[in-house]
Amino acid sequence: MNLKCTLGFHTWDGCTCTGCGKVRDEQHDWSKDCEKCSKCGKTRENQHEYTKDCEECSKCGKTLQVEIGGVCKTCGNRIIVSWDKKIYCIRCHINFKHDWSKDCEKCSKCDKARENQHDWSIDCEICCKCGKTRENQHNWSGCKCLICAKTRDEHHDWNGCTCSKCGKEQHDLQYCKCTKCFKTKHRFINNECINCGDVEQITIYCKYCTTSYTLGKNAMCMSNNELESMLGISFAGFKQSLIITKISEGAGGSKEDARTILKLAPSIGWECDKCKGHNKWNR
To answer: Cα–Cα distance between 167 and 187 in angstroms, integer?
Structure first.
């Protein structure tokens, strides 16, 4: 130690004496790291400024170092990664990274911007990652965009009743049948078309002999007694078979009765007309 330092006349360079290396607790150099003096190595906590940039201190340029599974300096709890890849404290919910969820090109926390991060692949005018919108970006060819394949309900290219570009159908229906292409288009509610009254049907097969029978698609299972009570007719003398046509006009019921049975379907006790198997049906 030189004589000047011995006598107390130190040559200070900030917090450190250049002559003897003595350190004082003032004039530290925090320019390279807000939490560690570059001259003497003294440390302090919670001094970085991340309000302008979530990941880089605006005063010293230090990049935010967050250890997953480490300790949050604010509350002392564990730091985890969320399902959407955000790194945050499990207790105070501080997000330690940029938040691009509301705008792929602008952080909602610090307003930092970036470019070319939106995803317009599904819709040219709506980002599929953040929902940001833009206008007049589709390249329309009639009713279909050539870039993202989105369709619009105008400028169709009709081939008969079907658009050749998007596949939309537009029929001139009378009693559920198109007068142009003759396709049938029912509107079924509760197993019955509200326009023409037809019953939506399926075929079921006996599990034993594979004999097929036709019933309503969403048929509710009902017993003999329930059907008799609903229709006001008796099944006495009739075989308990799944063949709907056995209940017909002049045989204890009407055609409307047969339609009702088709919709509701028989259940326990009804047997296959061919092999007498009970209650084993495959749809």
So the answer is: 19
Q: 246 in a domain, yes or no? A: yes
Mean pLDDT of the chain: 74
- Measured in degrees and rounded to the nearest 5, phi and psi for residue 64 equal -60, 125
Query: How far is it, in rounded angstroms, from Cα 79 to Cα 68?
Result: 5
Q: Tokens in use for 111?
A: 């307003």
Which segments of the chain have a pLDDT < 70? Answer: 1, 65-96, 190-191, 201-202, 213-283
Q: How many domains does the chain have?
A: 1
Token pair for 253: 């019921």
pLDDT at 150: 94
Domain-embedded: residue 159: no
Q: Cα angle vertex 31, ends 28, 32, to 5°?
A: 110
The pLDDT tens digits for 141-156 are 999 999 999 999 999 9
Angle at which helices 255-264 and 224-231 cross, to 10°: 140
Q: Give the structural domain span for 206.
A: 201-282
Whether the Cβ atoms of residue 241 and residue 270 lie closer than 8 Å to each other? yes
What is the C-alpha to C-alpha distance for residues 215 and 264, in angstroms, rounded to an integer?
8
- Beta strand spans in 146-278 (E): 158-159, 162-163, 173-174, 177-178, 188-189, 192-193, 201-206, 212-216
**Could you tell me which residues come within 8 angstroms of residue 197 by beta carbon, excluding any fewer than 6 positions away?**
none
Residue among 245, 248, 231, 233 nearest 273 (CA): 245
